[in-house]
């Protein structure tokens, strides 16, 4: 687990990781395509200019003639008109026979000259602060029967070509950015789509209650099937170990309780045969200790059952009136031993939805508590009535010692007992169990001291079905 | 009353038998389900106390089987305390259950409650002077009038009735009545004795105080 802390934030999500990778690839492709489009466009513009320059120089060369040994040139208009096509670039020319300039700009020296007539030499020079593209053609003109090689150079500034190039480059950049955005969008979608089986797999696992350990039977992509197999194996092992521990608990309870029962029965029997007070006192202490341990054991087991079942709550319809009758019937003999009258005031049916065993356990713990803490010859009343139009309220009211106000808020905490319990045997789990059950059913437990003073009042409030 | 106790733990069984005999009940003991079957075939019982985990099988299966043929009320002795197990036991036809370890007073109270619910006739009435005491029903009849006794009065009267003319010390009485709750003092005995005197005086039953020793109940 510690390794995750060293990983950058975005690596924690496979989705983000995929998206970022795809976006990176898209960026590289976009830059590459922009660069390619730009350079192709520039090259195409330059080639066009070169072709026009060649045509222009050739036209001039063809207009050369000789008359009485003098080379004459009448510049054809068309030679420059075709150059006008390329924007507002300035045009320069030079016609030279050998080193002698016949016409044009004397200082326009091309970087190279063609070696044979008919050849074309192309180059780029810096001329008067501008970059020029130069094209030179050679033509041999006969003057006085002598062939004279004449070089015709036509040059043009490159502003127009560069403008076309940068215009195209801008368009290419816009297109590349658009392409990039599209690619990121598609990448996010693709990542989400590719991860969809993983998410639905995770949801299927999450939706289950913690005690639902049946193997998962789903179609998953090949990449996920090792995970599925591993998970199913884990659940199987977990299920086995839960079953083993449940069996173990039942067996342990049996093994512990039977000898405890023997100890208690023998001690109680001995109580009737011994005479000395201190011996009786010792036996009573033994009985008390046995009661305490067995009571704690029951409530711990109850609590374990509640925790286990509350996670995967059953949803059967339970009649609270019926349930209250069962609980009061079950506890009546215990109450009778202290001459406590346990009365039930319930008109059924009062339906709630949930786990009958848990609800019974909750009410039993509350009533059992009342019986335990009530003095002899008192009343305990269990009343079932609507709390409001969506809830039922089961109230257990006794005439016992009540709750001391100071301890009221913490009584439902695990292993917490009131400060006024004196010598009464208890584990402090009873109200915790009840509250856990009620909360699991969407209800709650309310402890109060009745308005008219004595006794305690415990209300179990549950949503009606 | 006659009990059949089905329990494989000998020490526990002996303690239960001794305690029930102390209260004047007759108890037959079966260590296995097979033995229980034999006892049921030859004798009539008022109540069966059945352990659920026995060497030759599950007491609950036995319960399901006997429910179809026997009418004898059953109280299950169980070490399984989980609510689900208890509910299970009652569904199988037990009349009640008690979780080990248990208080004899509670066992007695549950037996009485089961018998009362079943409406089993109890012929074991004890004549006390001019009154008739029904320990199972928990009533005292005098002059054609039957009055219910409170549980502690009933238990105290039962001890006195079975020990005619014997002196019983306060601690002895206390043990029989309140072994389960430690909060009761010897003064409580005086309160209950006073109540019994009031109920019984008309019938010619006398509870005399033997100074420094205890109480003795006598009747004609």
UniProtKB/TrEMBL annotation, chain A:
Molecular function GO terms recorded: phosphorelay sensor kinase activity
Domain (Histidine kinase) ranges: 251-465
Keywords attached to this entry: Kinase, Membrane, Phosphoprotein, Transferase, Transmembrane, Transmembrane helix, Two-component regulatory system
Catalytic activity: ATP + protein L-histidine = ADP + protein N-phospho-L-histidine
GO cellular component: plasma membrane
Database matches in InterPro entries: 2CSK_N, HAMP_dom, HATPase_C_sf, HATPase_dom, His_kinase_dom, HisK_dim/P_dom, HisK_dim/P_sf, Sig_transdc_His_kin-like_C
Keyword NAD found: no
Location in or out of the cell: Membrane
Transmembrane segments: 20-37, 172-192
Enzyme Commission number, as recorded: 2.7.13.3
Domain HAMP: 192-243
A Pfam family reported for this protein in Swiss-Prot or TrEMBL: HATPase_c
Protein name (record): histidine kinase
Protein source organism: Yoonia maricola
Phylogenetic lineage: Bacteria, Pseudomonadati, Pseudomonadota, Alphaproteobacteria, Rhodobacterales
UniProtKB/TrEMBL annotation, chain B:
GO biological process: regulation of DNA-templated transcription
Domain Response regulatory: 2-115
Any Pfam family matching the protein: Response_reg
Any one Gene Ontology molecular-function term assigned to this protein's record: phosphorelay response regulator activity
Entries under InterPro entries matching the protein: CheY-like_superfamily, OmpR/PhoB-type_DNA-bd, Sig_transdc_resp-reg_receiver, WalR-like, WH-like_DNA-bd_sf
Top-level taxon of the source organism: Bacteria
GO cellular component: cytosol; protein-DNA complex
DNA-binding residue intervals: 123-219
Keywords (A to Z) from UniProt: DNA-binding, Phosphoprotein
The OmpR/PhoB-type domain, residue ranges: 123-219
Residue(s) carrying 4-aspartylphosphate: 51
Protein name: Two-component system response regulator TctD
């Amino acid at each position: 687990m510690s390794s995750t802390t060293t990983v950058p934030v975005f690596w924690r999500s496979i989705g983000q990781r995929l998206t970022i990778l795809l976006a990176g690839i898209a960026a590289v492709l976009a830059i590459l395509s922009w660069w390619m489009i730009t350079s192709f466009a520039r090259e195409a513009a330059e080639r066009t200019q070169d072709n026009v320059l060649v045509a222009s120089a050739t036209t001039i060369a063809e207009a050369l003639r000789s008359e009485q040994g003098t080379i004459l040139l009448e510049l054809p208009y068309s030679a420059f008109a075709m150059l006008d096509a390329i924007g507002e670039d300035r045009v320069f020319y030079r016609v030279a026979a050998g080193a002698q300039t016949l016409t044009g700009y004397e200082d326009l020296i091309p970087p190279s000259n063609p070696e044979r007539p008919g050849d074309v030499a192309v180059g780029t020079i810096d001329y008067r602060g501008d970059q020029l593209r130069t094209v030179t053609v050679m033509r041999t003109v006969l003057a006085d029967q002598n062939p004279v090689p004449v070089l015709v150079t036509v040059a043009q500034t490159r502003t127009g070509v560069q403008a076309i190039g940068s215009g195209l480059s801008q368009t290419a950049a816009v297109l590349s950015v658009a392409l990039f955005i599209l690619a990121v969008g598609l990448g996010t979608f693709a990542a989400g789509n590719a991860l969809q089986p993983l998410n639905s797999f995770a949801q299927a696992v999450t939706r289950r209650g913690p005690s639902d350990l049946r193997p998962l039977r789903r179609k998953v992509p090949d990449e996920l099937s090792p995970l599925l197999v591993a998970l199913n194996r884990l659940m199987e092992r977990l299920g086995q170990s839960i079953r083993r521990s449940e069996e173990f608990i039942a067996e342990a309870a049996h093994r512990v309780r039977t000898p405890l029962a023997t100890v208690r029965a023998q001690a109680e029997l001995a109580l009737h045969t011994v005479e000395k007070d201190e011996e009786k006192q010792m036996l009573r202490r033994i009985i008390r200790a046995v009661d305490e341990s067995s009571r704690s054991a029951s409530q711990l087991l109850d609590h374990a059952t509640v925790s286990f079942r509350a996670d995967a709550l059953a949803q059967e319809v339970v009649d609270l009136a019926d349930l209250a009758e069962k609980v009061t019937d079950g506890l009546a003999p215990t109450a009778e031993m202290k001459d406590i009258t346990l009365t039930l005031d319930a008109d059924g049916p009062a339906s709630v939805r949930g786990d009958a065993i848990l609800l019974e356990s909750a009410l039993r713990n509350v009533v059992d508590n009342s019986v335990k803490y009530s003095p002899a010859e008192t009343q305990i009343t269990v009343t079932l009535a609507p709390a409001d139009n969506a809830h039922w309220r089961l109230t257990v009211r006794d005439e016992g010692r009540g709750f001391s106000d100071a301890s009221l808020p913490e009584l439902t905490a695990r292993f917490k007992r009131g400060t006024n319990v004196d010598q009464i045997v208890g584990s402090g789990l009873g109200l915790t169990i009840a509250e856990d059950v009620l909360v699991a059913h969407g209800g709650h437990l309310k402890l109060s001291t009745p308005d008219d003073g004595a006794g305690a009042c415990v209300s179990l409030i549950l949503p009606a079905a | 009353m006659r009990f059949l106790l089905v329990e494989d733990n000998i020490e526990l069984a002996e303690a239960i038998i001794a305690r029930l005999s102390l209260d004047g009940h007759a108890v037959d003991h079966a260590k296995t389900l097979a033995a229980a079957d034999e006892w049921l075939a030859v004798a009539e019982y008022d109540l069966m106390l059945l352990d659920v985990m026995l060497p030759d099988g599950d007491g609950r299966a036995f319960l399901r089987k006997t429910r179809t043929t026997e009418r004898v009320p059953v109280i299950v002795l169980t070490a399984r305390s989980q609510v689900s197990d208890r509910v299970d036991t009652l569904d199988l036809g037990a009349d009640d259950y008690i979780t080990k370890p248990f208080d004899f007073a509670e066992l007695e109270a549950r037996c009485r409650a089961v018998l009362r619910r079943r409406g089993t006739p109890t012929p074991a009435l004890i004549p006390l002077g001019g009154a008739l005491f029904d320990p199972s029903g928990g009533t005292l009849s005098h002059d054609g009038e039957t009055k219910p006794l409170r549980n502690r009065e009933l238990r105290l009267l039962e001890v006195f009735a079975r020990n005619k003319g014997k002196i019983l010390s306060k601690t002895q009485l206390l043990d029989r009545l309140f072994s389960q709750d430690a909060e009761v003092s010897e003064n409580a005995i005086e309160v209950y004795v006073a109540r019994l005197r009031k109920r019984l005086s008309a019938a010619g039953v006398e509870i005399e105080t033997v100074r420094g020793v205890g109480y003795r109940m006598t009747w004609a």
